[in-house]
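In response to a reviewer's request, we include the raw inputs and outputs for one of the modeled complexes. The two entities were modeled together in a single run.
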Amino acid sequence: MLGVAILVFVLMRLVPGDIVQMRLGGTGMADKATIEMERARLGLNKPAWLQFVDWMKGMVVLDLGTSMWTGRPIIEEIGNRFELSLQVAVMATILAVVLAIPLGTIAALKQDTWVDYAVRMFSIAGLATPSFWLGILMILLFLALFKWMPPLTYVPIWQDPIRNLSQLLWPALATGYRYSAVATRMTRSSVLEVLREDYIRTARAKGLVDKLIINRHALKNALLPVITVIGLEFAFLIGGLVVTEQVFNLNGVGLLMAVSVTQHDYTLVQGLALMVSFIFVLTNFLVDLLYAWLDPRIQYS
Amino acid sequence: MTMQTTLPSSPAAVSLPPHANWLQLCWRFLRTKPLGAASLVGMLVFMAMALFAERLSPYDPLTIDYGGVLAPPSLQHWMGNDSFGRDMLSRIIFGSRTAMLVGYVCAIVGATLGLVIGVASAYFGGKVDTLIQRLIDVLLAFPLIILALVMVTALGTGTFNVILAITIPMIPRCARVVRSAALSIREVPYVDAARALGFGPWRIILRHMTPNVMAPYLIMLTSFMGQAILLEASLSFLGLGVQEPTPAWGLMLQGGAELYAEQAPWLPIFPGLAITASVFAFNLFGDSLRDELDPKLRV
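The model returned the following structure tokens for the whole complex.
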């Protein structure tokens, strides 16, 4: 985590120009004294390493500082949007799991038949379709067929579930397609691999019904790598929705990231990048724990 | 940081007659993998589009025609005109040049640097290996697009910077996979023999170890091509990638495409199709190649 913090910090300081120049409107508009004053207020006139120490000090007491652009605490800025991104990510995950596991299993069982080819086409197409384009097409279709557009303002799900879903379902579908494609491929290849194992042959030799073999013996083992992929993609979704959020005009974490990057809002970008990578590491950790729980053969000393 | 789950690491698991040359290998691939062959044709079509853009496109992609603003698809303009009256078909053909440039350069440079770093890390082992792996951990803790976004702000927009911003995040991904394959090669007798003969580490890395991790390298390389094209499209779509007036598919989806989508649906449809079709061809090819070279490796 410290490495991540340092990397983000260094990268952001490499960016030519800083926020004061951006905000005070380029050259000539503000006199030098004002610029210096503003820099001093934000702590930008201190040497870089001191700025880093300041930032780390805040981190210890879980204070991410305030946004250089809006002046509001970063926790608040992220918190406002986190809920929305989390919901989209969760919905996309549910979609992916519901689609991927049955599809991948069927494709593996009927390897090299038209079913398998259809599923593989579906998943390769899912990997190839940019989710933002899918989003544009969706909006276009709604406009053309129903003269309807998803609502633009966000309502929490417990206040008005229908309105909330009618806004967030579509981005979840658009990103979920790619997501399920990744998971389907993984399910297929891992089921294929497991089906060739000795214990499956033993089960067959015992005369067990196919259904039982697949549900009890094969899937249990085959799903382990699938869980990894789902975990990785989930972590990716929280921050990686940048482009999709743009299409649907969603005010989520991804959009915040894109905006703060262009505004040179160091503290906000640092906070966001740190959060994204923290979620990533946390998800990895949870997946590892889940792994050990599901598969007694794996032991972490 | 996190516990590593072991990656399957089998170097080139191809069973071939001992003296098969490149041509025979290619021929075998085309015969046994019809999907792979079809996707190869698709890749060649896009490559030809990029190379011969001037000859193929019916109009100049930059000529603005205010009389033909948002003209629907017709016999003169097969894919219609955009909001500046520029011919969409010509812009898509020229856009393939940007996409192929980004796709090939990013994939080849990113995967090759990853290859060298991965093999070197496995060869030296010990402290060097740990250091490189921790660095890779850090880089892998970012989603690809976030890292590319941050890089683009640090570097600025434009085609060259976009290539750089996409290439750098790809290096650690390839290095990780290559390293796990190279680890198993480090202990084989011919590497020991090379060391005993007094060859320097770089000679062993480049001449003796690298050729034996070609399977994961090629697989990563082909999977990077599609990813790079998608990433470039995403960045351009956000306005942080290739800049107007250079024709690029992601750029064509931005701005006008969204604004006029209702009255001129051809604006968003065709560039998106171009992205999907090209990435589809690359991914399909990569898939078939993986089946051929190393079915156990997952990317």
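As requested, we also summarize the result in words. Residues 1-18 of chain B have pLDDT under 50 and may be disordered. Chain B has 13 helices and no strands.
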